[in-house]
Amino acid sequence: TPIANPRWMVPNWSFGIREEAVRRQVDEARSGGADLVVLLSHNGFDVDRKLASRVPGIDVILTAHSHDALPFPIKVGKTLLIASGSHGKFLSRLDLEVRERGIADYSYALIPVLADAIEPDPDMAALVRSIREPHEAMLGAELARTESLLYRR
């Protein structure tokens, strides 16, 4: 988006929905023998739903950006769209039965991630600590104070 990615930060990049480019990639994958085409997207659910309706040959779209957590896949034509929410709150599990270059059957679960019930990996926790440690004073500095409640989604 222009706010999150101003042009001066990414001067040689452009962002947008490129249906023709996606169509070419899908066709190339299929002609190369792909039994399944899975698109990992960060366009948002509404945009990806429209993309699925306009570009045939995509079997699954793993959609993000809109932070939706879908309790079941949404089917648009022959394309399944799944979304796992945001901030690691959920994990989507999609098991596919693939036959004759397409999805014959599937099962899906949206699994809540309960951070308090998961033991952190000790090596990864040590790595995170070592990276944060030099910055703790800055990260803990009080920048402002408010007398009213601030809300964050």
UniProtKB/TrEMBL annotation:
Entry protein name = Sulfate thioesterase/sulfate thiohydrolase
> Tell me, which GO biological process terms does this entry list?
nucleotide catabolic process
Single GO molecular function? hydrolase activity
- List keywords of the entry alphabetically: Hydrolase
Q: What GO cellular component term, any one, is given?
A: outer membrane-bounded periplasmic space
